């Protein structure tokens, strides 16, 4: 704009000087061409229009403000204003040190236990941690949602829960597509008892609570060897998902899929290794894991089945044989009579793929 004004001012001064000097007007006119006169006249008209422009406040400025608000105000006024979600922030969380909050690694040592907060309105105990993260950030899978409730509203404080999956599903109905939330939650008391449940709801929290409370009605008891590992190596299959379980010594830890690891922690298993082959769908993975852990054969069951003593070579005893289970007297007599009366060899015993060791239970035996 400044360049245009300077151009207009130079052209106007030149024209005025040319008009005042009437004697030299004819000579100056010969120096200019037709296009120069057209440019000068346009510049004069634009300069006159700029001088006569009114810069006072008017209704046009208000229209400009409305236009600017419509451009920068989000959705605009035509479709309605954008809804403002008021977040319920606890005023205690906005304070520091006055609220008595403990942050691991900042004002408290790392490894603080879980704190329990009781809600008197619902009669429910919710376990909270100052810093609680899931498998990937602050998402729900991998996080705890508190202790489950019975049908009577009693809080089971000995049980803990972990969310395995939370996803949105849809179902086509005559009224249209209906979207809901589906959650898979595993609960356990860290002492050999655990179960899982599937819940649905319109909101994520309602679906997770329904799955958590439903899992208490479907609990399983899993045997543990010396309260830290499984009894023997085994392989289980559910649909196309195959899981191999391996028994490990104390101090090995849990090296398995994250969903199986959460199940092992809730069962109280500390040392185990798993190898998953095939699809890792959460529901199929959980069913295969429970099926495999329930199909293991204990030392006493092996002794009663074979009628022999079960012996282990343990490193803490200098790799000497230690009897860990013995059959009952009735079982010994029964197996001796069976072997003495038998004239032919049992081919099943000779070609046993497990070589007389632990044999996983069949699916029919688990029902």
Mind sketching the topology for me?
Blueprint: H1 2-20, H2 25-31, H3 34-51, H4 59-72, E1 115-119, E2 124-128, E3 160-173, E4 176-188, E5 193-201, H5 204-215, E6 219-221, E7 234-238, E8 241-247, E9 254-255, H6 258-267, E10 272-277, H7 282-294, H8 299-306, E11 310-314, E12 320-325, H9 329-341, H10 347-350, H11 363-366
Parallel strand pairs: 9-10
Antiparallel strand pairs: 1-2, 3-4, 4-5, 5-6, 7-8, 8-10, 11-12
Helix pairs in contact: 1-3
How helical, in percent, are the residues?
25-40%
- By DSSP, the count of extended strands is 12
Strand content: 15-25%
Q: Number of helical runs?
A: 11
Q: How far from one another are the termini?
A: 88 Å
Low-confidence stretches: 1-9, 22-32, 49-57, 112-130
- Sheet bearing the most strands, described? 4 strands, antiparallel
Structural category is alpha+beta
What string gives the helices and strands in order? HHHHEEEEEHEEEEHEHHEEHHH
Q: What is the arithmetic mean of pLDDT? A: 78
Domain S5 DRBM: 159-222
Family: Belongs to the universal ribosomal protein uS5 family.
Keywords: Ribonucleoprotein, Ribosomal protein
Organism: Porites lobata
Describe the structure.
The chain is 33% helix and 22% strand. The protein is built from 11 helices and 12 strands. The strands form 4 sheets. Strands 3-4-5-6 form a 4-stranded antiparallel β-sheet. The chain has a 4-stranded mixed β-sheet with strand order 7-8-10-9. Helix 1 packs across helix 3. It is elongated. The N terminus is likely disordered.
